[in-house]
Design goal:
Heterotrimer of A, B and C subunits. The chain is an alpha+beta fold and 488 residues long. Helix content is 39%, strand content 18%.
Amino acid sequence: MSDYRIKGETGEWEVVIGLEVHAQVTSNAKLFSGAATAFGAEPNTQVSLVDAAMPGMLPVPNRECIRQAVRTGMAIEAQINKWSRFDRKNYFYADLPQGYQISQLYHPLVGEGSLHIEADEKAGIAADKVIGIERIHVEQDAGKLMHDQHPTMSYVDLNRSGVALMEIVSKPDMRSPAEAGAYVRKLRSILRYVGSCDGNMEEGSMRADVNVSVRKPGDPFGTRTETKNVNSVRFVMQTIEYEAKRQVELLESGGTVDQETRLFNPDTGTTRTMRSKEDAHDYRYFPDPDLLPLELDDAFLAECRESLPELPDAKRARYEAAGISAYNAGVLTAEVESARWFDALLETGAEPKAAANWVTSELFGALNRLGKDIADCPVTPAQAGELLGLVADGTISGSIAKQVFEIMLETGDGAAAIVEREGLKQTSDTGAIEAVIAEVLAKNPGQLEQYRGGKEALFGFFVGQTMKAMQGKANPQVVNELLKKALG
């Protein structure tokens, strides 16, 4: 249960949120044509005769687009409909050359599923929660109007026309901006694990229509507004905060909320009216006469299921079972590239808990400092495994490992070669360590007297002085044992 409330003059209000996420399908071509879909191409260079709606051109469904949508449905444990159908959604717009969009209103490819978001007290999510997903349908994208290319005219770029989209429609189950943010992050993570969408919100390959209404707790749902094409998690959360407050102020001043479509302005963090909200009958939906229904056989569904990778929740549970903390498991599984890199590290034989601590602190810290992500990591999982192996078998200490790692980042050399070349091997030679301890105690008689007088916290001081004198190359465990003896 979310305790997020809008405090109005007449009391507290609850916000009700549903999201329609449009995710561009990762595929070799558009939904109904063979045209390319690469981002950033010159305008109108990726347009087939089908996309341009030339007379007599007939659409042919792209099998890979259907396959990716089915795999996505399976990843959220949704009902896969073996029989589905395409409908025409009719409206006029300059970037829609057909005069209609091919979508799926009445019989979508994927039915009901769900998505699990985790409790996060810092973010304001008090408990784990399951968000219902109503459906995933497949549809074609429209083109794009370019208003900044000419002083008096708008240009039309049809590169996006016909690109395959999955529209993933949630139930109105979210009750706070934090829950909505967690839902989008989790959904994006699943899409990227599955490989059905790259999740790149800045490039527009994943964007959300945000449905918001408010009500007094326990009352029926209020009238909702829909804010279109919001392209970051932060903006989704800002849209909800602004819309909820706007609607509460409107209702408390005696006004009514219009069911309408709105646009979010990221510069001001506000929304504005775009148009009044159409109902389904305004679009005159009817079955597309150029396309046969989609019928999926058991062999196709079995192939889709077998092709699914280990998904974030399962991976996280596996990591926790191996002794990795819940926090580290969450960090490591949030992005698919990090999880793959970490799995490759575990395959080298690295101890899971130590490896997770090292990756989340040392490795991620270094990458952050260098402005790189895990895909550009200068150190391979095999090299990292070698470094951690040298710490585990006592060849080098943890502090020396940090020095070796810095040299690895700069040179790309292996850990063992660096340790050999720089003479960094850890010593467990008890005679050498005992001699240094005797020297440290002789140089610090005041501290020695205080320690023996009961100030046991000074033990750490003696450890530090011994390690410093041995340039960090002494085995800390042996130092501790021998110091305890020497201090009696």
